[in-house]
Amino acid sequence: MKYQDLDKYWQRIFKLNWESLCQGSKAISALLIDEKGEIISEGRNQVGESSIPNPRVCHAETECIRNLDIKKHPMLKAYTLFCALEPCPMCMGTAAMSGIHNFVIACRDDFGGAMQLARHNKLLQSRNFNITWLPQEFGDIQRGFQFLKELLFEPQKGKLAEIEKDFSVYNKAGVKAAKSIYEDGWFKSKKASDYSVEEIFDEFAARIEGKSK
Question: What does pTM read for this prediction?
């Protein structure tokens, strides 16, 4: 897999992921796609950005839904939310209350993922969520981006160990790739923003596939 082989949706998602990481936020993003396949809204995680009064709630899916112009795009039941990571309770609830039924998700979240809650709540059951999970490699690269962010911006060793354990439940290959990129010195003399998303994505994919030099 290479970045240039991705469709326009996942190219955009990983580009937004990289923008978030370069800003010190979590590498997570989301898109809303209409019934014609057009991107009608997007959002990225901004929890690390101090210019926002309360960045803690600036999660990708919530921002994507908040950014949607419902006067132009009122048919929410027909739209699909593309998620880099399985939505947390806040984001899943926001999607449910907004009327979104369809999800395409790249990566499962053992700690914060909330899609299973739809089975245990009458309101959520009534939404009849339609969930598509992408192949393993998407999740591995997604978690790789997220763990690289932690390596670059979260130096607390105890916390880092907990995060590594959590991310490795489903995506150990992505975590391993992030650690190897970091330990190989990619960021000793360069900032994250010095690299393009294509460079980083392709390096992750190569290491996960065992093709890196």
Answer: 0.95
